[in-house]
Each structure stands twice: as C-alpha cells, then as structure tokens.
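Here's a chain:
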Amino acid sequence: MKPTAIITGAGTGLGKELAKLLSNDYHIVLVGRRAALLNEVSAEISGTAIRCDITKEEDLEKLYKQLKSQDLLPVELVVNNAGVGHFGPLNEAQPDEWDEMFKTNVKGPMLLTKVLLPEMKAAGKGTFLNILSTAALRGKVNESGYVASKFAFRGFSESLAKEVEPAGIRVVRAYMGGMNTPFWDESDHVKNPGKMRSPKEVAEVIVKRMWDEDEIEV
C-alpha cells in the first residue's frame, strides 16, 4: 500500500498539479472546500477526496476520523498549499479580508499540522511541504495584508522545522512567484495572468527538488 499524502487546495492550480505528480508514489488525499473539483482530480489519480475547511476545527476533527477509519494514518507527506489573497492599497483594504487571509494562509496550516503531527512523530518520519510564495520573502506594492500573512506562515514553518527535526520530520518551504491559476479569477491585481508560468511547470520543479532541499525558490 502506498504511503499517504495530503494536499490542501488540491482541486485547482498548483495543488492539482502536485497531486498528479505525487500520485505515482503516494495515495493522495485531496482536501478543499469544493467537492466537485476534488472529485474530478481524485478520479483521475485514484485518490481520496475529502471536503474540508482547514480553518474550522470541527472539519479537521472529521477529517482525522475519516483518515483513521480508512487506515490512511500516519500521513507521510502534508502539502500545505491552500491560500487566498486580497490586493490593493492599504487605505482601501477591508479588515474582513485580512481575517480571511490570516485564517486560510496561517491558521489553517497550523491547525492541520497540529492534528497530523502526533502520529507522524510516533512514526519517526514525514515531510511538510509548505507553499509560501515569494510574498514570504519581500514586501510588494499593494500586497501588504497578503505579504503579512505569508511572512507569518514562513515564521511558523521555520520554527516548526527546528521543532520537529529531532523527530525525523522535515519542513520544506517553497517560494514561487505568480502562476496562471484560478487564484487571480476574482482580482485585477495581475493584468494578464496568462503570461505567467503554468502551475504544472512550477510543480515539476518543486517535486524534483523537495527531496534534497529544505528551501526552494522557483
């Protein structure tokens, strides 16, 4: 039986492409909020689709119980990929948009990690692949809230790496620029996302390098 990998935000974009590439070596559990998209990818790779909002503890409790009932624990690879962004000048920003970004980009990965980590520690192995974006490396115009959330996620990831290293667990941090994905569908922050790299290209680089490098800038 293949080891288990969980990918959040797996219905579209980079999450979907990572799921397809990693399905050769792992049984992929696709997690997200849109069941139809998850089911479509799951059928393509013979994975398991579970609708789950990672920002809600009750959803994560159900996710854990489902994994346990299907004998999919411990998870060997966790890809914290789900993310959301709101962009524009700070004086036009809405506090509820900040809340959404910090819940999805920071709190969600922290909660999922907390749920899965004990069994990974008991197994003495495992990898977290945290998708951070170059917004976790430097400030950008009209992205103050988004960049703040990604810097927070980076801080969590770096601290977690030091905490779990003695247990034989790795935390890989991937920093990539913009991609041509549905991430931009409801934003005019990027005028022509079609000129960006495809998520397939980025996924291929990450999967090639993640086994030997703890930090990947694409």
Helices lie at 13-22, 35-45, 57-69, 95-123, 144-164, 199-209.
